[in-house]
Amino acid sequence: MRQQHSYSIEALVLKCIDLGEADRVLTLFTPNKGKFHAIAKGIRRPISKKAGHLELLSHSQLQVALGRNLDIITQAEVRENFLLLRNDMWHMTCGFYLAELVDRFIEEHSQHPEVYHLMLEMLRSLEADVIETEQRKQKGTMLPADQEHMRTNLLLRYFEIHLLAHIGYEPAFRKCAHCASELQPQENGFTPSLGGAVCPQCSRLWASSLSMNALKVLRLLQRSKWSEVPRFRLDARLSGELEAVMHGLLRFHLERDLKSWAFLEMLSVRE
Questions:
Q1: Does a structural domain hold residue 1?
Q2: Which CATH number covers residue 27?
Q3: Which ranges in the chain belong to alpha helices (H)?
Q4: C-alpha 244: how far from chain center
Q5: Strand 71-80 and strand 34-40: pairing?
Q6: Predicted structure pTM score
Q7: Which of 10, 98, 201, 234 is the most interior residue, by most CB within 10 Å?
């Protein structure tokens, strides 16, 4: 049987690191092969034909040759480059945050096609949000910055919840994470180390509280398709609570903060 020396694969570009004078090592995320690293030789040269097809967040079709240590990208054709995201600092940073989450949580060569398609859906939704924002700007109907960011903030929470669920860390928002009793529509508690919300009786052991409204939104995000999530008008306090809950869970599982958090916060304050 003839040995295969190359293969074709579609991928999202999560990360890139310069190598030598002209090469780059790319972190790729694929539906069937999972996450892996490959070399794009000569991509940093001005005459490179692959450069525009292998930018961060690009969704591309690749031809890859088997290498001794790392496989080598020989051809690349971009399917979606999400150029509109690159023209908007906020949305671009949100896209990079999705990539950072996937890179941190997904192990190499671990297949997660559902996470791949989720990330692709979220990138498309971010780009659609850029278009809507630009249309409001042209009509002179721009919203305050915190309201303009509300939909994308919800999108980030949606992605975080479903990413954790797909890799085996589904947050507990329906039953107490400690005693498994059904959570009632009232103020409950929350503890990342147990994986979610806790009932009032169990929450006496922990100081963090979870408002009824925050629990309702988290449950809705957890059980809905993104296209079916209503366009909430959340106040800054509730939006901050949702972010704190999800960041607490992510921090517990990763045992570290994510680099994008500080940059997203800086952009929110600036705007």
A1: no
A2: 2.40.50.140
A3: 83-86, 89-105, 113-139, 145-148, 150-166, 200-203, 212-223, 236-254, 259-270
A4: 16
A5: parallel
A6: 0.94
A7: 98
